[in-house]
Write a structure and sequence with these properties.
By secondary structure, the protein is an alpha+beta fold. Helix content is 56%, strand content 7%. It contains 36 helices and seven strands. Strand 1 (6-13) and strand 2 (19-32) form a beta hairpin. The radius of gyration is 42 Å and the shape is elongated. Pfam families: EVH1_PP4R3, PP4R3. Residues 730-750 have a biased composition (Polar residues). Residues 1-107 form the WH1 domain.
């Protein structure tokens, strides 16, 4: 393998016809045994001599390689996989190009090594006899013939290639532009229309060598002139050249000493203008025929950004003048706009290049400069600075967070960068608060824990959130606190309400994503009570924002928050807003009902008790939804369980199947339950809790299905114990049945008809300490919880062994 190595960037063309940067490395050529041929190898420069391979591509003798702009080599590995090597030095590009041409047996002076052949065998055979395409003389009288020749060649890739070579080799473009000037002088409309079609066709040839001629300083304006005379517009041409020469002005806010850089900027602007404004919108079939034009612009932009980054004097002068108090307002406005355009320009770069770009700006002091600019009175300058700040936050929020945490050690809270952003959001004069919305989005990005870094030595989340709540949160919440000192908002105009809605949106985000920081702030500053004042706003969107804030807090099911809400009676403004809304079926009505419904469904016990005990009288008449009656039922069930805690504990364990007993053993309580005498129930009456009577009726039919397998299981267990057999015989003689049937159901199972008649089956009683009639029960008049006696058997709870569960 050769020892020559050249620094290159590797690019691939994605589905959107944009070039993706695959990395920077050093290219070499040599024989690769695995590929059985000479190959191009690019190893990542960061990994040294044994670096990872960025590219390993065999130089195929039949692949068409193109050399563009002296430092680019482009080729296709497959039908939809294009590759490019961008060389740092022309010498390196030339050396690799010679290796490629050597393998393919081509002269290194050519810019493309193969003819692009996509045609059928018949077409290729027809064209084999003509080695080249002969162009008519470049004369006014032959323009129509030339236009027809160009149009007929475009559908065929082979003819396009031959036409390209002919135009390039004969210097035809400069001759055509000379004819254009003659036609303009003679006002020859037909000739100008033919030239429009010819030049447009040359663009569709998609050849870099032709673009380099057309976009040169001496030719580009005439090329634009040819494209002004679209036959579809008739005799009225467009005035693109007038715009470029008279209206569009290049402002050199900082002198650019490099003439090559200045020329590249001019060229890129004009070519971009041709692509966006001059050329007609390409059809579906023509779109891929302009891929080289896209590539030309892309690589120009990459080169411009790189050259500006490398010019330390330029960037130093830029930031020095930006922060200099002696700089006049007009000059500073131009400087900020240039920096904004520069940052916008960088968005076309790949992530690796953007990272280097913003790192360079950070090292030059862009954040301190923005802090100075944002403190100025000029609205336009501040707006441009905000746009620059947004580029920085969106790309690298950690860099911004690190800066603001460092500056808080030196500056007062009032002049911190993040507080300046909050103040601009609060003081936005736009009636629609467009700027405030943008700034709120940036603040949200900065306080989002999802994009914060965590390392072994420090946690960015902890450090930054501690800083934010100590130095910045009071600035953010100031308008909210100032407007909620009474029972209703002191200012309720539309713009103020919009601002408060934005602040509430950010606070709601903090409740969802921050932990103890926002909790401490809300409880210590009594923020929720202040927020709920906004439910009295005449603007429904603001009242709903306040409800959403409380709903997020309740949704956390945090008892610290719940105790805070109960202690301060913070459901009162919600209930008041609900009652004031009346019978209107709107979003306010639905949002409040959903909040209470959440408390009911999630069984938030503390809040359920608080709501019923304090607001039931106001809500008991609401019957178009069952939410409030359901809350009352929850409350009564809680109260019942509090009065009978042991029974509730057993009931909870059994219902949730938190344990399984071994199939071979029964504990003492279960023995007492199954062996209890029928006469322990008074007169055989079924005992069903009143609140569960409706549920019992619906469950009775379901429990019938369990009778047979459960009875068999219980009989088998009874037969294992001689004592149980005696009890079983006694029970059978009392009931007159030979084979007792045990039915097990929930304690709320409904009794069958004929409960007053003598029972025909064995009656069992749980005998738990909290049930009526059981030994040691000290609660009188409490809701009965014993199992229901039916004509077919027993109702009660049981936890079945695994063996039985598998059989059923």
């Amino acid at each position: 393998m050769t020892d020559t190595r050249r620094r290159v960037k590797v690019y691939t063309l994605n589905e959107d016809r944009q070039w993706d940067d695959r990395g920077t490395g050093h290219v070499s050529s040599g024989y690769v045994e695995r590929l059985k041929g000479m190959s191009l190898l690019v190893r990542a420069e960061s990994d040294g001599e044994s670096g990872s391979l960025l590219l390993e591509s065999k130089i195929n003798p039949n692949t068409a390689y193109q050399k563009q702009q002296d430092t680019l080599i482009v080729w296709s590995e497959a039908e939809n996989y294009d590759l490019a090597l961008s060389f740092q030095e022309k010498a390196g590009c030339d050396e690799i190009w010679e290796k490629i041409c050597q393998v393919q047996g081509k002269d290194p002076s050519v810019d493309i090594t193969q003819d692009l052949v996509d045609e059928s065998e018949e077409e290729r055979f027809d064209d084999m006899s003509s080695p080249g395409l002969e162009l008519p003389p470049c004369e006014l009288g032959r323009l129509e013939e030339l236009a027809e020749l160009v149009a007929s060649s475009l559908p065929s890739p082979l003819r396009r290639e031959k036409l390209s070579l002919a135009v390039e080799n004969e210097g035809y473009i400069r001759k055509l532009l000379e004819l254009f000037r003659q036609c303009e002088d003679l006002e020859n409309a037909d000739g100008l229309h033919h030239l429009y079609e010819i030049v447009k066709g040359i663009f569709l040839l998609n050849r870099t060598a032709l673009f380099e001629v057309m976009f040169s300083e001496e030719c580009i304006m005439d090329v634009i002139g040819c494209l002004e005379h679209d036959p579809a517009l008739g005799a009225t041409p467009r005035r693109h050249r007038d715009f470029l020469t008279k209206t569009a002005r290049f402002k050199e806010v900082i002198p650019i000493g490099d003439p090559e850089l200045r020329a590249k900027i001019h060229q890129t602007y004009r070519v971009q203008y041709i692509q966006d404004m001059v050329l007609p919108t390409p059809s579906v079939f023509e779109e891929n025929m302009l891929s080289t034009l896209h590539s030309f612009i892309f690589f120009n932009k990459v080169e411009i950004v790189g050259m500006l980054q490398d010019d330390e004097k330029f960037l130093t002068d830029l930031f020095a003048q930006l922060t200099d108090e002696a700089t006049d307002d007009d000059k500073r406005h131009e400087l900020v706009n240039f920096l904004k355009e520069f940052c916008s320009f960088s968005q076309t770069l790949q992530p690796q290049n953007r990272d280097a770009f913003f790192k360079t700006l950070s090292n030059m002091g862009i954040l301190p400069a923005l802090e100075v600019i944002l403190g100025m009175d000029d609205v336009q300058v501040r707006s441009a600075a905000t746009d620059i700040f947004s580029y920085l936050v969106e790309y690298n929020p950690s860099m911004v967070r690190e800066f603001v945490m460092q500056e808080c050690q030196q500056n007062d809270d009032d002049i911190l960068l993040i507080n300046l952003i909050i103040e601009h959001m609060i003081c936005d004069t736009d009636p629609e608060l467009g700027g405030a919305v943008q700034l709120m989005g940036l603040l949200r990005t900065l306080v989002d824990p999802e994009n914060m870094l965590a390392t072994a030595n420090k946690t960015e989340k902890t450090e930054f959130l501690s800083f934010f709540y100590k130095h910045c949160m009071h600035v953010l919440s100031a308008p909210l606190l100032a407007n909620t000192t009474e029972d209703k908002p002191s200012k309720d105009d539309f713009q103020t309400s919009q601002l408060l809605a934005l602040i509430l949106e950010l606070l709601t985000f903090c409740v969802e994503h921050h932990t103890y920081h926002i909790k401490n702030y809300i409880i210590n500053k009594d923020i929720l009570r202040r927020v709920l004042v906004l439910t009295a706003s005449k603007h429904a969107f603001l009242a709903l924002c306040a409800l959403r804030f409380m709903r997020r807090i309740i949704g956390l099911k945090d008892e610290f928050y719940n105790r805070y809400i109960m202690r301060n009676l913070l459901f009162e403004p919600v209930v008041k807003a609900f009652l004031n809304n009346g019978s209107r079926y709107n979003l306010m009505n639905s949002a409040i009902i959903e909040m209470f419904e959440y408390v009911r469904v999630e069984d938030v016990k503390s809040l359920t008790a608080h709501i019923v005990e304090n607001y039931w009288k106001s809500l008991e008449d609401v019957d178009y939804v069952q939410t409030f009656k359901g809350l009352k039922l929850r409350y009564e069930q809680q109260k019942e369980r509090q009065e009978n805690p042991k029974l509730d504990s057993m009931r909870s364990i059994l219902r949730n199947h938190r344990f399984r007993r071994d199939a071979r053993t029964l504990d003492d309580d279960e023995e007492m339950w199954f062996n209890a005498e029928e006469d322990e129930l008074e007169d055989g009456e079924a005992v069903v809790p009143p609140s569960d009577s409706k549920v019992a009726k619906t469950n009775a039919s379901e429990n019938e299905d369990l009778m047979d397998p459960i009875s068999k299981f219980m009989e088998r267990k009874k037969l294992k114990d001689s004592e149980e057999k005696e009890i079983l015989g006694k029970s059978s003689s009392l009931s007159g049945r030979q084979s007792p049937s045990f039915k097990l159901s929930f304690s709320g199972s409904a009794p069958k008809t004929g409960l007053a008649s003598p029972p025909s089956s064995t009656s069992l009683h749980p005998g738990s300490p909290g049930s009526p009639g059981s030994p040691g029960s000290g609660v009188k008049g409490s809701p009965p919880t014993a199992a229901a006696v039916t004509t077919k058997g027993l109702g009660g709870f049981v936890d079945y062994p695994d063996e039985f569960m598998m059989k059923t």
